[in-house]
Amino acid sequence: MQTRIRRALLTSVCAACALLLWAAYNHGIAADCSDGASESEIAAGQIAGKLLADAHMDQWKRKNPERAKDWVAEEKERHAIKPPADNSDLLKGDQGKGHKYGQYTELDILMWARETEKMVVDGSRIFHDANALGSTVAVSCDMCHPDGANTHPETYPKFQAQMGRTVLLRDMINWCIEHPVRGKRLDSDDSKMRALEAYILAQRKGTPLNYGKH
Ligand code: HEC
Cβ of 168: how many Cβ atoms within 10 Å? Predict the structure, then answer.
């Protein structure tokens, strides 16, 4: 009986630790994203800290599958999303020697890929979600652009007749938000706009740039 109580106590302490680490990890990510140039230099210790927090989080998720759904994995199951570039070549030879923190490590490469992919996956989530887009007519982007089709980000900047000027990809995204989607245009720096741009560009991976093309 006593062992059972002790075990239950230990489990709840572990879960609390995992939650704390998770909160600290997310806070760290938010700080990394909103800072200026000097603060964006992530110290190697911080990276290791994040990965440690992740490891704890994974453990917690395995024990609490219902409470901790992994939205990145779920979105990737729902929609085909192109993976970011493979940077594992940087681990070979002398390529990383000039880097501020010496040679790149596997942790760096893992962290870059994971963080980049997270932004793109967030874009996919918004692209497919009429509510997140603020649509007043329940329309999301994928209804006309399945898997990001016909968005041609590689052709921007280009002259768009309906706006009577040369525009960037984000202007066209806003045009579609205001017209077919009937929502409110997003600020250029809005996190949703940034994620949508990231997703649309990612889906055209490998296509050569050709600005101005109609
Ligand atoms: C009801 C259909 C519809 C929906 C929904 C829609 N679009 Fe569009 N989209 C269009 C049409 C039609 C065009 C072509 C407009 C033109 O070039 O004159 C277009 C063009 C674009 C382009 C430029 C393509 C090019 O070839 O230059 C982008 C980028 C784009 N849409 C993104 C989005 C995004 C992001 C959303 C969701 C917020 C969205 N669209 C929702 C119909 C739609």
Answer: 16
Q: Which residues line ligand 1 (CB under 6 A)?
A: 133, 139, 141, 143-145, 150-152, 155, 162, 169, 172-173, 176-177, 180-181, 196, 200
User: Measured in angstroms, how far is the CA atom of residue 199 from the centroid of ligand 1?
Assistant: 14
Q: Are residues 30 and 132 in the same domain?
A: no
Sign of the Cα pseudo-torsion (125, 130, 135, 141, in order): positive
The type of residue at 194 is R
Instruction: Determine the distance separating the centroid of ligand 1 and the alpha carbon of 83, expressed in angstroms.
Output: 23
Shared domain check, 93 and 30: no
User: Using one digit for the tens of pLDDT, what is the confidence trace for 168-189?
Assistant: 999 999 999 999 999 999 999 9
Ligand 1 atom nearest 161 alpha carbon:
18
Cα(29) to centroid(ligand 1), Å: 32
* pTM: predicted TM-score of the whole model, two decimal places: 0.74
Neighbours of 180 (CB within 10 A): 16
Structural domain span for residue 45 = 1-68
